[in-house]
Amino acid sequence: TLGTQTDYRDGEAQTDPYSPEYVLPSGSVPELLTLATLTWGRGLPAGLVEVEMIERAREKRAWEATLPAMDNASNIAKRKKMMEDMERKEWAFREQEIEKLQEVRLEVLKKLLQRREENQNELDAKRLDDHWQNHQKAKEEKIKKIQHDCALMLRKLIAKRKNVMGKLERRDIIREYTDFASQTYAPLSRIGYFPDNHSERYVVKNFYLNTFAGLCELEASLPDSVTQVEIKAPKPKYTTTKTGFIKRSAKLEVELAQVHQ
């Protein structure tokens, strides 16, 4: 009435089925020995193919029992004819097995070819997509360049349109210096001026700051009050008692004075 349950499944602890040792009595050939070549995972448990093999083995044993004895010439000829017929049947069965095996291999080959074709189609589609993306990128860059050139030409046309007649204008110095966006304050590099050139001339180079001898001379010229500082201890603002404590009233007076300031 009681049952037990383990922590493991049977499949995790199951080994190959046990096959005990056996002893054959003399003169007996049990039918079970025809399955001695089958093992667990290779023919066992028996399927349709194994059942057909067992049935053929039984038919062959029954046929062997019907063979005539080789005691005279007629029986020998009859036995030879029966064996030839059985051999033709065996060859025909073997051919059928080969055909079945070839059909299975052909199906596997078809599946492999189909899978390879699908992979090749996917690869071709990916390459085509990459090629299309590259063309799209080149097209966008070309359109962007055309738009940039268009804006540049429009600016040039607008600048030419301002002076259609080609009249020479005198320089207005007052307008240039009042407009902080003019060439005086912000010259353009395309007219031959580069404001960042020769920027090293604005770097401060001081003998007293960049050399050790200058630093020594600068330190010697300073007064003693700069190099030798005398610190005086500040006098306490609080009134202390004989024991050194600060009275609360004195502390409040200092705080009030700070608030008043």
Describe what you observe in this structure.
Residues 4-156 form the CFAP91 domain. The chain is an all-alpha fold. The chain starts with 9 loop residues before the first helix and ends with a helix. 57% of the residues lie in helices and 2% in strands. It has helices at 10-13, 48-65, 73-162, 173-178, 207-210, 212-221, 224-227, 248-260; strands at 39-40, 43-44. The model has no long low-confidence stretch (mean pLDDT 85). The chain has a domain at 48-159. The chain is elongated, with a radius of gyration of 56 Å. It contains 8 helices and 2 strands, in the order αββααααααα. It has a two-stranded parallel sheet with strand order 1-2.
Annotation field: number of helices: 8
Helix fraction, binned, reads: 55-70%
> How do the helices and strands follow one another from N- to C-terminus?
HEEHHHHHHH
**Total beta strand runs:** 2
